[in-house]
Amino acid sequence: MPKSDTYAQFLRQFHIERFHKSDDLRLFHEALALRIRVLVEQEGFPLDEEPDNHEEQAIHWVVREAETYAVVATARIVQLPFEKEDEKTGEMTAHTLTLIDKLAVLPEQRGSGTGRFLMVALLSHIRESLDSTHIAAIAHTKSITFFENLGFMSSKRYTPFTTVKEGALLMERI
Description:
alpha+beta, about 35% strand
């Protein structure tokens, strides 16, 4: 089946939504519940990090099953300011790191393309609307290959600007 047919079929089965917490608190709580179920209960990340201090500024995303309208995947985009030394002038210049994190996909949806569908939407949004040249993702160690297949590689370049907990890795999009 050609990719466009596969994508069209996926769109018939799933819907994707993006929102800010302040725009749809109910949907935020659905996304948060999924994050707790996957990231805390299944992956073992600390409950006290859900939610965190980036929720208000983040662009949240969910993938819903078309039939049941249940949230089956979620992630968010957070933009973090940082300064970088210009190699030619030595001056510090302001930049923005666009960070994809809190990616959670229900176990029964893994391997179905749901996570990839969500990540492609996030990356398209970043490219079209945020115009960011510094893109990174926090990947759980079990999902490193998934991120590598999307053009990410292991990086420590942005670790001074974001927190990466044990069991996760910062990956940069090249």
